[in-house]
Amino acid sequence: MLNEIYNARILELAGNIPLCQRLSDADGTNVQHSKLCGSKVTVDLKFCDGVVVEYGQEVKACALGQAASSIMARNVVGSPANELCEVRDQVYAMLKDGGAPPTGKWSDIAALQPVKDFKARHASTMLVFDAVCEVVKENEVSTAEKEVI
User: Nearest to residue 67, comparing CAs of 33, 20, 108, 96?
Assistant: First the structure.
């Protein structure tokens, strides 16, 4: 059964994580940590007109957290900020409610579908998606506050 989770595609993604350098001038940073397995993901994002223009990350996670981080890094630059929280919500629904994985440029997320049967692995899989969405939310608040001033 565990072979389904740690399939060749997951291991390939986990072994090839792009953008693993932190940004020194990020518009936002977030750290997510899984208490269950000790995995930790730190993400940095830079935005221009509501679109991600730069991304950096530090990934100290299990193979599932690494694979998810790899998928994020391959697709995040050029993505509108609102799309990123939608993707997070789709991944959550895929794992918790049996929802369909995202399609299009995010279709690699389908490789994470077998994780749905292993609840203890959900948290490490969600780390990067939660971290990115938190940065998006914080940036929206910061941008709104600047517009008021």
Answer: 108
Q: Which run of H or of E encompasses 33?
A: strand 28-33
Q: What is the CA radius of gyration of the chain?
A: 15
Total Cβ atoms within 10 A of residue 110 = 15
Residue 2's alpha-carbon distances to 61, 66, 112, 144, in angstroms, are 17, 17, 12, 45
Round to whole Å and give the CA distance between 110 and 55.
22
| Burial of 81: CB neighbours in 10 Å, binned 0-12, 13-18, 19+ | buried
Does the reported pTM lie above 0.90?
A: yes
| Residue-wise pLDDT tens digits, 1-14 | 556 788 899 999 99
Cα 106 → chain centroid:
11
**How far, in Å, CA of 5 to CA of 28, rounded?**
31
